[in-house]
Design a protein that fits this description.
alpha/beta; binds pyridoxal-5'-phosphate; single chain; Aspartate Aminotransferase, domain 1; 14 strands; disordered N terminus; Aspartate Aminotransferase, domain 2
């Protein structure tokens, strides 16, 4: 393999690297440092390094360096290894040999001279120009998410909603038609119902399992895009991503899955056939209830189309937030495995409890899409929704009797959180409106944290006992 490094590539390396090597040695240093200190399972090995170097910019004016083909190791596939190492060694931004990716707290980027600027404009010298168009810390986090999702490209945005709205505005033409599903995050529904119609964009809303309606919508309309959560909020319905993707591809419709509730630990939506996967990184991805962000991953052309509009709309994530996401992601696999286990055990315990009317969890055989979830998910996520056998007041009493979870919106962090959707998200709606949206007054959404299961179980049982 021949690598050509742009004339300014050496400038991007640490002072120490530059002191110790000639220009041609630079590539060897990059290659060696990408390989050193790693076990056989080590991620971001030479292959990633090479891929990154290639994406850093190829110049016909640059120095050609031969890399031994035998040195290319296969990419590791395991999610936990990718969570730790993905995106970390690829972009040459590490300073002073730090292990961690630095927080590049800058609004703008400088050019040494006009020749550099022209090289940048011509694409032979990669830099970032201006904070709205990119940031090295954010890019490292984007690459880590790409590694986890198995995506070519990822855009990290200031919130999940910013990622979703920018994606819809970028990919659906004026006058276009989209298909969404009944159960979904309230603000997504609001955007689809109130903003998209201003551009003449119409929507068919289907039940997540209703493939006949999807076929009908695809036959009757020029559908540009299918957008659904899987699992959905708050009833954890699952769509058959493989089947939906097959049906949509035939008609040229883009499939975007909001995988927030699943995370790439439990579900690889792109491998199942979706074109894009969106995450509210606020939830499991960042994982600590301390940062807001969103991500959208998929093929480079699609994500770049979204990024171009994002560059205009400007919903940029702050570098410090991007750092926190990258840091949080290192424990994603550990956290989600514990949350999967807590939620599945809690769901099973609740299902047989006399004071519970119904449990909604895709890992239970009673769930309408259990067979789909079992097929396409490795774990079923940390959220369990359930109905107290009682009214709004009794349900509030149960929530107020809990000692471990905080009463709060959101999900996916280390701390267990609990909410009554009627009160926290739909209180402004009349009971009739809530009923129309399927939001029941006795519904509880419990987002398991990473606490010990026995403690969560004991807490839930003591509160149920007091009803
Ligand atoms: C929270 C959430 C969103 C919105 O994400 P923000 O980061 O809060 O903007 C979108 N979809 C789902 C499924 C969510 O849970």
């Amino acid at each position: 393999m021949i690598l050509r490094f742009p004339p300014n590539f050496a400038r991007q390396l640490s002072v120490k690297s530059r002191r110790n090597c000639s220009n041609i040695g630079v590539a060897q240093v990059v290659a060696a440092s990408a390989m050193s200190g790693q076990s056989s399972g080590g991620s971001s090995s030479i292959v990633d390094g090479v891929a990154a170097a290639l994406s850093v910019g190829i110049s016909v004016n640059g120095t050609a360096v031969k890399i031994d083909k035998a040195a290319e190791k296969p990419k590791p596939k395991s999610t936990s290894t990718l969570a730790v190492h993905g995106g970390e060694r690829e972009n040459g931004t590490k300073v002073a040999d730090s292990l961690t990716t630095p927080i590049v707290q800058t609004a703008t980027y400088t050019f040494r001279n006009t020749a550099d600027l022209i090289a940048f404009q011509d694409g032979t010298y990669k830099s970032f120009e201006y904070g709205r168009y990119g940031n090295p810390t954010t890019q490292a986090t984007e690459r880590k998410i790409s590694a986890l999702e198995g995506a070519e490209e990822t855009l990290v945005s200031a919130s999940g909603m910013c990622a979703a709205t920018t994606m819809l505005l970028a990919l659906v033409p004026a006058g276009g038609h989209i298909v969404t599903t009944t159960d979904c995050y309230r603000r997504t529904r609001q955007f689809v119902q109130t903003v998209l119609p201003k551009m003449g964009i119409t929507t068919t809303v289907i039940d997540p399992a209703d493939m006949a309606s999807l076929k009908g919508a695809l036959d009757d309309n020029p559908v540009s895009l299918f957008f659904s959560e899987s699992p959905t909020n708050p009833y954890l319905r699952c769509i058959d991503i493989e089947l939906v993707s097959t049906l949509c591809r035939r008609k040229g419709a883009i499939v975007c899955i909001d995988g927030t509730f699943a995370t790439p630990v439990n579900q690889k939506a792109l491998a199942l056939g979706a074109d894009l996967v969106l995450n509210s990184a606020t939830k499991y991805i960042a994982g600590h209830n301390d940062v807001l962000a969103g991500s959208i991953s998929g093929s480079k052309p699609l994500v770049d189309t979204v990024r171009k509009l994002h560059n205009v709309l400007g919903g940029v994530v702050d570098a410090h937030a991007a750092y926190l996401i990258g840091r949080g992601l290192k424990t994603l696999d550990l956290r989600v495995r514990q949350q999967n286990s807590n939620a599945l055990r809690l769901a099973r315990a609740l299902e047989s409890h006399p004071k519970i009317a119904r449990v909604h969890y895709p890992g239970l055989e009673s769930h309408p899409e259990f067979h789909i979830a079992s097929k396409q998910m490795r774990g079923f996520g940390g959220v369990v929704s359930f109905e107290i056998d009682g009214d709004l007041a009794l349900t509030s009493k149960f929530i107020d009797g809990l000692r471990i979870p905080y009463i709060a919106p959101s999900l996916g962090g280390c701390e267990s959180l609990v909410e009554q959707p009627t009160i926290i998200s739909y209180w402004d709606q009349s009971p009739a409106e809530r009923a129309k949206m399927g939001i029941k007054d006795n519904l509880v959404r419990f987002s398991c944290g990473i606490e010990d299961y026995e403690d969560i179980y004991a807490d839930v049982m003591q509160s149920l006992a007091s009803l």
